[in-house]
Design goal:
The chain is α/β, with parallel strands linked by helices and 664 residues long. The protein has 3 domains: 29-375, ABC transporter type 1, transmembrane domain (ABC transporter transmembrane region fold, Up-down Bundle); 391-628, Rossmann fold, CATH 3.40.50; 632-664, no CATH class. The protein has 21 helices and 12 strands. It has helices at residues 16-22, 30-33, 38-41, 44-65, 67-98, 104-155, 160-163, 166-209, 213-257, 262-267, 270-323, 329-375, 434-441, 464-470, 485-490, 500-510, 513-518, 539-553, 569-584, 619-623, 630-640, and strands spanning 391-399, 411-419, 423-428, 449-454, 457-458, 471-474, 557-561, 588-592, 604-609, 612-617, 648-653, 659-661. It has a 6-stranded mixed β-sheet with strand order 6-7-8-3-9-10, sandwiched between helices. Helix 5 (67-98) runs antiparallel to helix 12 (329-375), helix 6 (104-155) packs parallel to helix 12 (329-375) and helix 9 (213-257) runs parallel beside helix 12. The protein is elongated, with a radius of gyration of 36 Å. The relative contact order is 0.08. Bound molecules: adenosine-5'-triphosphate (ATP). Pfam families: ABC_tran. It is a multi-pass membrane protein. This is ABC transporter ATP-binding protein. GO terms for molecular function: ABC-type oligopeptide transporter activity; ATP binding; ATP hydrolysis activity. Its main location: membrane.
Length: 664
């Protein structure tokens, strides 16, 4: 594969890397714009309206995280601002005393008390600064943790369909950023308090000196405020536009260092290829960064020119007041000081508010995510779930995955029964809808139409947590947790303390006891490569642990999706034997497998094709001449792979109904 990416793709187009690896541009803003016209929310007015609420939310978050630290920070910031204000007023007195008429010694003596106040406010200010630094340091990480927990708590309860939804993921991306923004908001909030008090003090002094000075001071900061806001809005907008692209870039760099793709990265030479595309994707982001910083530089230059003009106007006004004798020289000195101090604190205030505003945009995303997660949460409560239902019935159930339903539903008008304490096999070709059916059965998705009835009760009204509790599941893609061997099995039931006895039983059941024996630290072996003492298992060994996990859970209904695909022949026999015994013990087993010989002992076999139920019956019934022949054809095809006379030709039979075989 030699697709060398261009060096400087235009930022608004899909780069060749995006097109080749991801099928199109990863930079859409329609998604998040759909959420309440997010661009409009960026207007100064709407943000000004929202800012107090978001600041309030952050302060509540901080109070939840550490009330004591919050009090310390608030008191320290207030102390710092007040000491600055008092200091400024004291300096005014010092200047007035020093510039007054009379002998120098007398003037200095008169200035002494005010000088003392300046010194004391300096010390108080320094102490308050250090208290604020230590309090903020204590508070910030806690706020981030509480904010992170807040969204994680909600996300773990959303429907599976939400987790698979691309829009929800995009929101999740920016909301994750929101947790660290909440942390930074604490710093900016405390900065705003300090700067605000200092500004009020300077403004008060200026107003007393001459009323025209305050509007002039405000004029000097308007261009800076405009520039900061404009830059922040551009940055936030760009962040959303590029958020998926950034995730994809991280994905590429992650693939180069993870253990799973490592063999292919080397043998297939994927490494240099991915690295090239990583570079190309990064260059696209860098181009966007360059564009943003150029725009920021331009806006700042305009702002500086306007500020300079406003400062000139202020000093010209001061000069005018002096020349016309409206203001005395000593007062003009204080005015210069107060203007400088006021303009500095106003600049700092604007900077802090601007940073607050920028971070608040992400905290707002965090709030939006929490709201969306609450709307898409698995409903709580409902009718109690039958403990051991006599039968579960699918009644004309159809379901299509979001975004694909228009093309063809994954399940189309399926009606079938799962009787209690029986082995029910689901068979059919790849993509026929078997896994989808069990996910609907377990309550992971909800039917688009039709009903799933538990002893006649519609599952839609049942308590979903109760439904989940009835199932144990070992799916095709069961998760390989990067924890110890013990936890990989015991994670099947986390609401109880780990029981060693139950672990041993589950391991024996799945043939995982042999796996555990061979591990260097037995049950305590860490099953994660790349960590100290980490160990890797073979596919079949993992599968045994997966089956042991489902057994450890002891759900009333066991779903096993391709349980033996990675097992050797002996282990496969053992697992099917155990599954049979489970059903003898009253547990309902739902078995999905492509090994058709192993469904011989199932009580009922349902055959799916393109999302539709084609036939149902026992093995003998489905193999008999009166069946539709879908299962029989599949079975003969598979058996023929081992037979001497070659595989059966699907759909082709001789006049006696015996499948014809392809010549070897
Ligand atoms: N999460 C998903 N999002 C969108 N489409 C999906 C999703 N999972 C499955 N599908 C689609 O639904 C259809 C049925 O898939 P399903 O996994 O149920 O088939 P299956 O019979 O279990 O296949 P296999 O034997 O290969 O495991 C397929 O066309 C598949 O592409």
């Amino acid at each position: 594969m030699r697709h060398s990416p261009p060096r400087h793709p235009r930022p608004q187009e899909a780069s060749p890397s995006e097109r080749l690896l991801f099928g199109g541009p990863l930079r859409h803003d329609q998604g998040w714009n759909k959420h309440e016209n997010a661009h409009l929310e960026l207007s100064l007015w709407s943000m000004a309206l929202r800012l107090p609420r978001l600041v309030g939310a952050t302060i509540r978050l901080a109070a939840r995280a550490d009330r004591g630290a919050l009090r310390t920070v608030a008191a320290a910031e207030l102390g710092q601002g007040v000491s600055q204000a008092v200091g400024l007023i004291a300096i005014n007195h010092v200047l007035a005393a020093v510039l007054a008429a009379g002998p120098t010694g007398q003037r200095l003596t008169a200035a002494l008390p005010a000088l003392l106040v300046v010194a004391v406010t300096g010390v108080v200010g320094a102490l308050a600064t250090s208290a604020s630094t230590s309090g903020t340091g204590r508070l910030e990480p806690k706020v981030e943790r509480v904010a992170t927990e807040m969204y994680l708590e909600r996300v773990i309860h959303v429907e599976l369909a939400a987790i698979e939804d691309e829009e929800f993921h995009r929101l999740l991306d920016s909301a994750q950023y929101g947790a660290s923004s909440a942390r930074r908001m604490i710093k900016y909030c405390s900065g705003v308090v300090g700067a605000l008090v200092a500004f009020v003090a300077a403004a008060g002094v200026l107003t007393v000196l001459h009323p025209v000075l305050l509007p002039l001071l405000a004029l000097t900061t308007v261009p800076r405020a405009w520039a900061s806001l404009r830059i922040a809005r551009a940055r936030y907008s760009s962040f959303h536009h590029w958020v998926q692209h950034a995730r994809a870039g991280r994905l590429l760099s992650g693939l180069l260092i993870q253990t799973e793709p490592a063999p292919e990265v080397r043998v297939h030479g994927v490494g240099p290829f991915l690295l090239r595309h990583f570079r190309s994707m990064s260059e696209s982001s860098e181009a966007e960064q360059t564009r943003l910083s150029r725009e920021a530089a331009r806006v700042r230059l305009i702002a500086s020119a306007l500020t300079g003009t406003a400062v000139l106007a202020t000093y010209a006004a001061l000069g005018g007041l002096l020349l016309t004798g409206v203001m005395r020289l000593s007062v003009a000195g204080t005015a210069v000081l107060a203007t400088r101090s006021g303009s500095a604190s106003l600049a700092s205030l604007i900077l802090q508010i601007n940073s607050l505003y920028e971070e608040a945009c992400y905290v707002q995303d965090l709030e939006r995510l929490c709201q969306e997660a609450a709307e898409r949460a698995i409903p709580e409560g409902g009718e109690p779930v039958p403990d051991n239902p006599k039968e579960i019935r699918f009644e004309d159930v159809s379901f299509g995955y979001p975004g694909t339903a228009a093309r063809r539903p994954a399940l189309d008008g399926v009606s079938l029964t799962i009787p209690q304490g029986k082995i029910v096999a689901l068979v059919g070709e790849n993509g026929s809808g078997k896994s989808t059916l069990v996910k609907l059965l377990a309550g992971l998705y909800r039917p688009d139409s039709g009903r799933i009835l538990w002893d006649g009760q519609d599952m839609a009204g049942l308590d979903r947590a109760g439904v989940f509790a009835r199932f144990a599941m070992v799916s095709q893609d069961f998760h390989r947790w990067p924890f110890t061997c013990r936890m990989n099995v015991a994670i099947g039931r986390t609401d109880h303390a780990v029981s060693q006895e139950r672990l041993e039983t589950a391991a024996r059941y799945a043939g995982a006891d042999e796996v555990v024996e061979q591990l260097p630290r037995g049950w305590d072996t860490l099953l994660a490569r790349g960590y100290e003492g980490g160990h890797q298992l073979s596919g079949g060994q993992w599968q045994r642990l997966g089956i042991a996990r489902a057994r450890y859970r002891e759900g009333r209904i066991l779903i096993v999706d391709e349980p033996t695909s990675a097992l050797d022949a002996r282990a496969e026999l053992q697992v099917f034997d155990q599954i049979r015994r489970l059903a003898d013990g009253g547990q309902t087993v739902l078995l999905i497998t492509h090994r058709l010989a192993s469904v011989r002992h199932a009580d009922v076999i349902h055959v799916l094709e393109h999302g539709r139920l084609r036939e149902s019956g026992t093995f003998e019934e489905l193999m008999g001449p009166s069946s539709a022949g879908v299962f029989r054809d599949l079975y003969e095809l598979q058996r023929g792979q081992f037979a001497e006379d070659g595989p059966a030709v699907p759909g082709s039979r001789d006049p006696d109904g015996v499948p014809r075989r392809a010549p070897r």
